[in-house]
Amino acid sequence: MVYNLYERQLEKQVKTFQIPGHIGIILDGNRRHAREAGLQNPEAIYHLGAAKLDEILTWSANLGVPRVTLWVFSPDNLRRTETEIGGIFGAVEAKMRALAADPHIHRKGVHITAMGRRDLLPTALLEAIDAAEAATRENDQITVTLAIGYGGREEIADAVRALLADCAARGLTTAEAAAIVSPETIRRHLYLADVPDPDLIIRTSGEVRLSGFMLWQSVHSELYFCDVNWPAMRRIDYLRAIRSYQRRERRFGV
């Protein structure tokens, strides 16, 4: 009863101030949560994390957050065991197929998209992601981007590679290509070049680092580190993160 009262008061307070236009979340702590819960099956572990996505969608939609980016899997994660990687991919695939067919997703106006290196992902997972994107393409209330097979360094390297390829296609010399390199020309070749930078980045599990999440885009993002593991994240934790953001003075280096 006390918890519910506090949650309602916190929500009312948060809704009084400006809501972040873009929230990025680093989903960390699945394995720690599993150990605490006594779970050992990798797919069961990551199904818990995937299930939390439904709540994040609901919380964000109710608050009017127009864009959320969730970091699900990085190239560094490929160093984990095949069983664990399979558990992650299996959980994400099942969730994508479920979301594509979920009428609640369409009622909330959720558009699902993805960014990252597709060549790192299995065919079945890519098909599920593509199906979810296609099924929600016309929705325009909230965009949820899965950063999967995604690394910030890889994104920047891919952007530079794409820029150089564009210069070569235009017949530019090396010197001419070098002359047009700028933050703006690199940005135009990022995975989702037209997406606004995240206002707020949340990392769960208590780790205090970005680990390569949206390195280019996070230069002016506000950061919030939450001690709770991702599958155990509560609405109250989400509201506290947004309240912390609202209390900060954003000066963008000025």
3D structure, described in words:
- The protein is of the alpha/beta class and 254 residues long.
- The chain has 2 domains: 19-150 and 196-232, Decaprenyl diphosphate synthase-like (Undecaprenyl pyrophosphate synthetase, 3-Layer(aba) Sandwich); 152-190, no CATH class.
- It is 49% helix and 13% strand.
- The protein has 10 helices and 6 strands; from the N terminus they run αβααβααβαβαααββα.
- It has helices at residues 2-16, 30-37, 42-63, 82-100, 103-107, 123-136, 152-169, 174-180, 183-187, 235-246; strands at residues 23-26, 67-73, 110-115, 142-148, 200-203, 222-225.
- The mean pLDDT is 95.
Compose a concise summary of this entry.
This protein has helices spanning 2-16, 30-37, 42-63, 82-100, 103-107, 123-136, 152-169, 174-180, 183-187, 235-246; strands at 23-26, 67-73, 110-115, 142-148, 200-203, 222-225. It is α/β, with parallel strands linked by helices and 254 residues long. The protein folds into 2 domains: 19-150 and 196-232, Decaprenyl diphosphate synthase-like (Undecaprenyl pyrophosphate synthetase, 3-Layer(aba) Sandwich); 152-190, no CATH class.
Write the layout of secondary structure elements.
Elements: H1 2-16, E1 23-26, H2 30-37, H3 42-63, E2 67-73, H4 82-100, H5 103-107, E3 110-115, H6 123-136, E4 142-148, H7 152-169, H8 174-180, H9 183-187, E5 200-203, E6 222-225, H10 235-246
Parallel strand pairs: 1-2, 1-5, 2-4, 3-4, 5-6
Helix pairs in contact: 1-10, 2-3, 3-4, 4-6
Key traits:
254 residues, alpha/beta, Undecaprenyl pyrophosphate synthetase, 2 domains, 6-stranded parallel β-sheet, 6 strands
